[in-house]
Amino acid sequence: MTRYSKHYPSIVGNTTIEKLFTDFWTTDFEKTLDKMTSGYPVTDVYMEKDKQVIEMALAGFSKDMIKVDIETNKICISSTGLDGETKNRRIAKRKFSKEYVDYTHKLDLENSVATFENGLLRIEIPPKEKTISKKIEII
Question: What are the tens digits of pLDDT across the range 19-36?
Answer without folding.
Answer: 555 555 555 555 555 555
